[in-house]
Amino acid sequence: MTWLSSAKRAFAPLLLIAPVALLAQSDPSQAPKGAGQPAIQNAEQILRNAARIDDLSEAGAERQPQYLNNEEPWLYQGSDLPQDKEWLFGELPNGLRYAVRKNRVPANQVSIRVRVDAGALHERDGEQGFAHLLEHMLFRESKYLGQGEAVPTWQRLGASFGSDTNAETSPTHTVYKLDLPDGRKGNLQESMKLLSGMIQAPVLSPENLALDVPIVLAERRESGRADRRIYDTTRETLYAGTRLADRSTIGTVESLQGATAKSIQAFHQRWYRPENTVVVVVGDADPLLLAKLVEDNYGDWTVPGKPTPAPDFMDVAPLRKVDTAFPVDKARTVAEPGQPRSITYAYLREWEPVQDTVVYNEGLMMDAVATAIINRRLEERARSGGSYLAAEVSQEDVSRTADVTFVVLIPLTEDWQSALDDVKLVIDDSLLRPPSQAEIDREVAEIDISFINQVEQEDIQAGSYLADRLVGAVDIREAVASPTVAKQIWDGAKRRFTPEQMFARTKMLFTSPVVRGVLVTPEPAEADDAVFTAALARPVEQGDDFRSDKKALTFADLPAIGEPAQPVSRKSIGVYEIEQVEYPNGVRALVWNSGNEPGRVTVNVRFGSGWRAFTGDQAAFAEIGEIAMVGTGFGDVSQNGLDELATGRKFGYEFEIGDAAFSLHARTRMDDLEDQLYLFAAKLAAPRYDANPILRAKASARLAYDRYAATAAGVLNRDLEYYLRGKDGRFATANPAEIEAVTPEAYEAVWDPLMRQGPIEVIVFGDIDVEKTVAYIGQTFGALPAREPIPAAAAQRTLGFADTGPDVQVLYHAGDSDEAAAVFAWPTDAGADQLPESRKTDLLSQIFGNRLLEVMRERVGASYAPNVGIQWPETVEGQGYVIAIATLPPEMVPVFFEEAGKIANDLATNGPTEDEIARVTEPMRQLLRRLSSGHTFFLRSLEGATQEPAFITGIDTMAADYTRTTPAEMQALAQKYFGGEGWKMAVLPEGTSLQD
User: Is 849 a member of any domain?
Assistant: First the structure.
C-alpha cells in the first residue's frame, strides 16, 4: 500500500544525505476542491474557462468504455485492502492497463501519467542510459508532433515545461507526465492523442539521436562529477551482486555515444509494449469519458514479436551471509576533496514480492514507529554534544532489488570513527532492551496526527498527487488506499505497539546476511577500505540507556505571553472576506476563512527588518541565525522541549530572512492554531539562545563552506549574490574564520535586539474560525510589549547592483576540468509601486528563457538546463535584476555570453513574436487560475500588505499584468533593461582562462 506522503515524512523528520535508494515523496498540497472564483472581477473575466470538462460527460455517454473491470481490479489482485472505489480500472485486450478517476482539484485540470516498465534495470550491457535517452527522444519528435514541437505545443495549451510537462526515468520504470491545466474537450482529446503518439511511435532517427545525445551528456556532466562518483560507488558497493550495481540511470559516456538509431529502436520495441504500460488519468471530467479516451488512443496499439520477459533484478548472485556478529562483507572509502565527510551503511536483505495485505501494512507501520524512536534518540544525542552533526535510520525496498535498513550520518569533525561509534551505540542499545511505552506512545501520537490531517483533507487531494501515488503503487507492485482506509489500518495496528512487539520488530530491521557501507572523506590519506571495514565491524562498549519515561512538556506548563488584548480596529481589505485586524500594541493581522480547504491553515509572521538589519561584517551571524533560530528555543523551553510540545500536533516552525523583514512560517490546523500562535509569539517575547544549536549550526556552515569550491555551481552558490550586489558584505558567504567568531555570546548580542525591533504582521488564512482566531492572536501577539523601532541606519539600507560593462568577473573552482558556469545579468527597478512592471518583466524573462533553452540546449547541446529568472525586490528600495545562468563546458562560456547577448539585443530591437508571448501567457493564465483557488496564493501575494497597501491593490491588476501584453510592450521593457551591456561572471576550472 502506498502511504500518505506527509505521514511518511513524520516517520523520519530528519532527512540527511539521501542514500541511493531513498524514494522521493510528492507533496499533495495544491489548490483545493471546490475552488472559489478569483477575488477581483477583472481577474474573473480573464481567468475563467469558457467551458467546464463536466460538459463532456454527455459526449462520452454515446460510446461507453468496453474494458472496465472494477469487480476484480488489476491493482488489488492478491490484496485484502479495501478498494478505493473512486478509481475505475480497465485492461485492454492488448494487455495495457489503465486507471481513471474524477477529481476537481484543481478545477478543470486533468493529470495524465503513462508508465512503462522500462528503466535502467531493463538495459542490456552496452545499453546503459538508453531508457533515459529514449525518454528525451520521445519529446523530440513523434507520430503527431514534428521535430521540437512538443514543448511549444503544450505551452500553447497552458502547460509549463518542467512542471506541468515532464518525465522521469528510474531503475524500474519511465513515466511521462502531463498536468493539463485547461482540460476542455479539444485540449484533452488532443493531448491524449499526442501522448499516445509519443509512446507508440516516436521518430528515432539518426538526426534526432544526434540532437539528444549531447543533451543527455550535458545533463550527466551537470549532475556533478564528484556527486556522481560518490553515487556510483555507493550503488556499486551496497547492491553488489545485483543488476542495480551495474546500472546507473544516466548511463555511461561510452554507451550513450555508441547508441545508434537501430539500437534505440530495438530497446523501444522490446519494452514499449502495451502489456508493459499503465495509463493513469485523473481530472475534472467524467471518468467514463477518461476511460474511453484511453481505450480510443491505445486500443489498437500492437508491437510485433513476443514480449521479452523482464530481467531478474537479482540474477547475478544472492546475498551470502557473513558469519560474524556484525556481518560486514563490503566497505568502500571514497576520497573526494571538498566533499563533507559522511557514512552510509546498510543492512541488506533480498527483496521478495509481497501480498499487499492489512497485516503486511501493519508490520510496515511498526517499522515506522521503531525507526522513529531510534531517530529521536539519535537526534537528542546529537543535540547534547554528540560527535556527529546528524544521523538517521530508514527502511526502504529498493528498486525491487533489496529490502534495506539504511544508517546515514555526518560527522562533526575529522574524527569519523567516534561519530560512527556514537551512532552504533544508540542503535545497538535499541537491540538490547525494548523501548519504553512512553517512547512508543510519543511516536504514535506524532504519526497519528498525520493520518488525521490526511483524512481531514481527503476531499481536496490534488489530482496530480493521486496520479503519482497510483503510479508509485504500480512500481512497487502494491495497491493504494484512501486516507480513511489508511487511518483505519493505522488504528488497527495500535494493538501491536507494545514494547515487546516493537522490540522484536526493531531486531528484524537490523537482522541481515550482510552489512555494507561507504565512507566519504575529503582527505585521501585519512582512511582506506580496510580501516573503514574494521571500524564498521568493531563492537562498541555499551553503557548508556537511551530510553525515556519522563513526562513530556505541555502547553499547560507554560506561562501566558501577557495580558490578552482586544482589537482596536477590524476592517475588510476588499479581497474576498479577508479582514485586517489591529491590536493596541500595534500588531496588525490579516485573517481569512477561505471556506474550501478543510484541515489546512497557514500562519505567517513578519517582523523586524530582515537583511536591512545587518552590516557588512555580520554575514556570518545571519547565516548561522537562519540555521539555529528555531532550535535555540524560547523562555525555559529548549529544542527538546519544542519537540515535546509538538507531540500529537500539526505544527510548523520555519524561519527566514527576507529583504525587508524576518518571517516565521507554519502549516497547521484549527485545532492546533492557538498553540501554534503561542510558539511564534513566545519566540518574540522571550527569545532563548542555547549554545548547542548555535555550535551545531556553525559545524553545518563549515561543512557547507568546504564543499563550495569543488564545483562551478558551488562557487556560484557561495559568491554570486555577493558580486551581483556590488560586493555588499551582507551577502558574502562566511568563511571558516568568520564562522568560528560566532560564539553563543556574540550571537545573542547581535540577534537579541533584532528580535525586539520593528512592526509585527500576522497572517492566518485557511480553514479557520475567524472569531476564535482573532481572539488567539489577541492573547498571544496582542499581549506582546510594544516593539522597538527599526534603527534609522537599517531602515535606509538598500539593494545595489554591480557595475555593468564588457569585463567578465572570473572566479575559479577546484573540481573537474570540463565543468564551468556562466552568468549574464541586467539590473532592473524594484519596489511595490511598480508591481505591474515587475510582472511584465517576469514574462519577458520567460520569453528570454525559452529562446536560451532553444539555443544552448536544443541547438548546440552545451547546457542541460540554462535558466533565466527575475529578482524584483518589492519591500526594499534598490535594484532587482534579470539573470541568465548555465553550467556548461569551459569552451562554451564565450558562446553563452554571445548567444545571451544576441537574445537580449534582438528582444530590444525587434521584440518577441505573438506566438512567443502566447507560450508564456497561456501557462501563466492557467497557473494563476489554479493558484488563486487556494489560500496560500493570496497569503504570499499579501505578505507585508498591512504596511504596504500596494500589495492589496496589486491583486486587482495581477491577472491582466501576467496575461495581457503585446510585442511592443515587451520590446519597450527589453529596451529599458537590456539596452546596457549587463554584467557577466564566469566560473572556470583552476588553471584555465576565458582565452583557453
Answer: yes
